[in-house]
Amino acid sequence: MQVTKTSLDGVLILEPKVFGDARGWFMETWSAAKFEAVGLNFNFVQDNQSYSAQRGTLRGLHYQTAPFAQAKLVRCTCGKLLDVAVDIREGSATFAKWVAVELTAENKKQLLIPRGFAHGFITLTDDVEIQYKADNFYAPTCDGNIRWDDSEIGIDWPFAPTILADKDAKAPTLRERLTRGELRFS
Questions:
Q1: How confident is the model at residue 181 (pLDDT cuts 50, 70, 90)?
Q2: C-beta of residue 119 within 8 angstroms of C-beta of residue 43
Q3: Region 30-39 average pLDDT
Q4: For the whole model, what pTM was predicted?
Q5: What is the mean predicted confidence (pLDDT) over 131-144?
Q6: Does 70 map to a domain?
Q7: Of 103, 130, 143, 157, which sits 20 to 30 A from 123 (CA to CA)?
Q8: Does any domain span residue 123?
Q9: pLDDT band of 50, cuts 50, 70, 90
Q10: Is 62 a residue of the active site?
Q11: H or E element: which one contains 62?
Q12: What proportions of the chain, in percent to the nearest 5, are helix, strand and coil?
């Protein structure tokens, strides 16, 4: 597995080793032993999968607060998407900074997003499936979101979304969440 650091501490791009032959290919998408060998220790407890039918579907920016904050290991298994992680840890040197990675079924890249980051993506093709592991269970009482187009964050989305959930369209800004004390991760 190749591990590439990003500009945000703890957000990593993982590229599993792919073994191909005349039959097709094989790869390990998760191995606790291989993660531990490179200093990554996660106890993933939940797998999630979503499907987006149309290009331009935006989901996010989502996060969970303590005591159910989540780290995620994200991958695209069909189609292509732009995956985004935003540092929302108050006091962090990279607070409100973001990183984006194109995840596709073909490139097989995965994005590791630690606790304390918001996560979102926009589909770049029709028929996109995203799968991710979480190291904590989903808890509706700890669920939060931030506006996808928050000017303080300034994500450079490739285009405006054409499909967006009402809750994401009406999400508060990062500053509003911070002012209300809604960003607790430990």
A1: confident
A2: no
A3: 90
A4: 0.94
A5: 96
A6: yes
A7: 143
A8: yes
A9: very high
A10: yes
A11: strand 57-64
A12: 10, 40, 50
Q: Both tokens of residue 44?
A: 């993933």
**CATH classification at residue 128:** 2.60.120.10
The whole-number pLDDT of residue 176 equals: 95
> Which conformational region is residue 81 in: left (phi greater than 0), alpha (psi within -120 to 50 degrees), or beta?
beta
Task: Give me the domain span that covers residue 99.
Answer: 7-13+43-179
| Contact call for residues 62 and 145 (beta carbons, < 8 A) | yes
Residue 19, domain member (yes or no) = no
141-162 pLDDT tens trace = 999 999 999 999 999 999 999 9
Contact partners, residue 25, CB within 8 Å, separation at least 6: 18, 19
What tokens does 66 get? Answer: 């303590």
String of DSSP letters for 104-159: ETTT--EEEE-TTEEEEEEESSSSEEEEEEESS---GGGEEE--TT-TTT----SS
Among 51, 62, 63, 138, the one annotated catalytic: 62
**String of b and e for 65-91 (b: at least 16 CB within 10 Å)?**
beebbbbbbbbbebbbbbbbbbbbbee
Is-catalytic flag, 119?
no
Domain assignment present for residue 146? The answer is yes
Neighbour tally for 132: CB within 10 Å: 23
Among 51, 119, 132, 138, the one annotated catalytic: 132
- Give the total number of structural domains in the chain: 1
